[in-house]
Amino acid sequence: MSGTEPTRHPGRPWALPSTIAREFDPGGAGRRGRRTVRDWFADFSCFAAAVLLGMAGADAISANPHVSEDLADLDQVVGALACAAVWLRRRWPLGLAVAMVPVALVSDTGGGAAAVALFTLAVHRPFRYVAWVGAASIAMIPFAYWMRPDAEMPYGVSLAFGVLISLTVIGWGMFVRSRRELLLSLHDRALRAENEASLRAEQAQRLAREAIAREMHDVLAHRLTLLSVHAGALEFRPDAPRPEIVRAAGVIRESAHEALQDLRQVIGVLRGGDTDAPGRPQPTLAALDALVAECREAGMKVVLDSRVTDPDAVPAALGRTAYRIAQEALTNARKHAPGAEVTVTVTGAPGEGLTMTVRNPAPPGDVPKVPGSGQGLIGLAERASLAGGRLGHRALPGGGFHLEAWLPWAS
Per-residue DSSP letters for 197-263? Predict the structure, then answer.
């Protein structure tokens, strides 16, 4: 994952760095890439092996009484050309291996180059090509020893030795190929694991950001709506009685203070990077009475009908979700239906689930324009879904609104 550009192999869905792909290129996709120091070393080693084996073959053919001097010279010339052709093994492994089949038939000096070509074919090409070319090479061995019998070994022994050498070269090449495939597979698994870990980290960060954003919306929207409503009342009614102005100013001051405290808590979590860091206590269902009282102090008409026997016994996560739903619903009612009486009903028991309904009729007068993002209900539905529940809402005839949520409550 440094800066190397990924290379795609034919028939393989993985992306591999080009430096790794050059080591094993079954489709020839990397044939135009520059050779590395390792490639030059491998090519020179193969050329040296072909020359050394060719020299041994040249000595044997020169000392063979069954071969004339002219044929021995021709054998060495063909072998020298075959050794030079070894440098083409990376570019045309199949063509070189096919060309070496007749060369090995007529030249003992070219036997080393033929073995290198067969080995390269086994490394860089699938088994079907290796099988055909290898079978042709082995089939030529009896004719080669019949045309040029060995001076020291019997025909049968020479034949068995030649076949054994060919099979060893093919097996060695296939072993190298399978080892490289294994290394590439392990490298691909490492890349996949690294990518998956990166994606999981990004997803965790995104979920954390969404949770913080949802919490900021739920907490701050309630406070800032109070500020907006009472500031708007002061703006449009500057001649209001002094007690009302004092009460509105007190609500504004208290809401601003609470909003500042909540904002400090969220910022502290963001700076510390620990969502479990201690801060202000999280609300539960038992805090619903305080929320309703706060709304009443702000001038709302709220009726709370809680039929839960023991709110303190409600699980913390369930109670917090229910509290946030009620808080957002009351905030929306305050913004869009000022002056209307809002009824909050909470029912439920362990094993049955917790049901909350928030209902309000149409507002009695004109509704002032209060800015909003429209994402509150979407966030509530997502919050309920994450808790394993569901949330629905609908407009009532005449301009009212009805919201209902159900949350699971384990027994």
Answer: HHHHHHHHHHHHHHHHHHHHHHHHHHHHHHHHHHHHHHHH-TTS-HHHHHHHHHHHHHHHHHHHHHH
Residue type, 289: D
262-311, pLDDT tens digit by residue?
677 666 655 555 444 444 557 888 889 988 988 888 778 999 999 998 88
**H or E element at residue 353:** strand 353-360
CATH 3.30.565.10 segments of the chain? 284-411
| CA–CA distance, 120 with 99 (Å, rounded to integer) | 13
Q: Which residue has tokens 């004109």?
A: 366
Token couple for 115: 């073995």
DSSP 8-state code for residue 17 = E
Q: What is the pLDDT of residues 77-115, one digit of tens each?
A: 887 888 888 888 888 888 888 888 888 877 777 778 888
Q: At a CB cut-off of 8 Å and minimum separation 6, what does 36 contact?
A: 19, 22
DSSP 109: T
Q: What is the pLDDT of residues 314-372, one digit of tens each?
A: 888 898 889 989 988 888 888 888 888 999 999 999 989 999 999 999 888 776 665 55
Give the model's pLDDT for residue 265: 65
Enter the CATH code of domain 284-411: 3.30.565.10
Closest to 129 (Cα-Cα) out of 161, 101, 165: 101
Beta bridge partners of 73: none
What was the pLDDT predicted at 134? 83
- Burial (CB < 10 A; 0-12, 13-18, 19+), residue 191, is middle
- SS in 3 state form for 128-189? HHHHHHHHHHHHHHHHHHHHCCCCCCCHHHHHHHHHHHHHHHHHHHHHHHHHHHHHHHHHHH
Cα–Cα dist 280/296, whole Å: 23
Nearest-angstrom CA–CA distance, 399 and 256: 31
Q: How far is it, in rounded angstroms, from Cα 411 to Cα 349?
A: 8
